[in-house]
Design a protein that fits this description.
Largest sheet: 8 strands, parallel, barrel
Structural class: alpha/beta
Oligomer: single chain
Strand order of the largest sheet: 1-2-3-4-5-6-7-8
Radius of gyration: 17 Å
Helix content: 40-55%
Strand content: 15-25%
Number of strands: 8
């Protein structure tokens, strides 16, 4: 079984900073600490309303990171222009609604194939690895391959929510869907990532999926850092991911 990469999402360091409108805590400092703690990449979502990560943060991340940046964006012209200017290692296309607290559900690729294909092509031509954030739905996986995405990131939010609610039958059914769709995606030549809502209690079964090559985790790690510190919080997630991969 191959190594499993960890992408640490630093959005909510910026959320805390923006609550006071100052300069601290600094997302760039968090990104560098995450690098030192064993993160294989940094993820940042530049939202249209700039509620956490700012354009200046993306400028800074591109300048200081030694690990790849995964830039999450909505499929808008403004965001495409920004991504093409920076040319990050990876671009993940996510659904986005102004009123949501966090990304709700996966991208509706199957209903927007023509638009997304035209959105993705210039990013790929610029050398970015393009992923789409989708629910565990065969139609969406097939559509992702048709529009030119190289990667799918499976939305693990429902799986995690069922676990938190104690609905273990529904949790296990969702895990089975994720398992089947990860396998199916690999048959189409797609790289498979996963993320959203993962915690120490839910990461092991996802880490055990052999087709999954990367997990992107943010909110839980930043929250846990309040109690443990950022480096120990990341190190524990890394340990559990390696346990899932049987690499300890």
């Amino acid at each position: 079984m191959t190594d499993l990469r960890l992408g640490v999402n630093i959005d909510h360091v910026a959320t805390v900073r923006n609550a006071r409108g100052g300069a601290y805590p600094d997302p760039l400092r968090a990104a560098k600490l995450a690098e030192d703690a064993g993160a294989d990449g940094i993820t940042a979502h530049l939202r249209e309303d700039r509620r956490h990560i700012s354009d200046a943060d993306i400028d800074g991340l591109m300048a200081v990171l030694d690990v790849p940046l995964n830039l999450e964006i909505a499929a808008t012209k403004e965001m495409q222009v920004i991504a093409l200017r920076h040319k990050p290692h990876a671009v993940c296309i996510v659904p986005e609604k102004r009123e949501e607290l966090t990304t709700e559900g996966g991208l509706e690729v199957a209903h927007e194939e023509n638009r997304l294909a035209h959105f993705i092509a210039p990013l790929r031509d610029a050398g970015c690895k393009v992923s789409v954030f989708i629910a565990a739905d065969k139609r969406q996986v097939e559509a992702a391959q048709r529009v030119g995405a190289q990667v799918i990131e499976l939305h693990t939010g429902a799986y995690c929510d069922f676990h938190t609610k104690g609905d273990f039958a529904a949790r296990d059914a969702e895990l089975q869907k994720l398992t089947k769709l990860a396998t199916f995606a690999r048959t189409l030549g797609l790289e498979v990532h996963a993320g959203h809502g993962l915690t120490y209690d839910t990461v092991l079964p996802i880490a055990r999926l052999p087709e999954v090559q990367e997990l992107n985790i943010g909110h839980f790690i930043i929250g846990e850092a309040i109690f443990r510190g950022l480096t120990p919080a990341i190190s524990e997630m890394r340990r559990l991911m390696d346990e899932g991969r049987d690499l300890r």
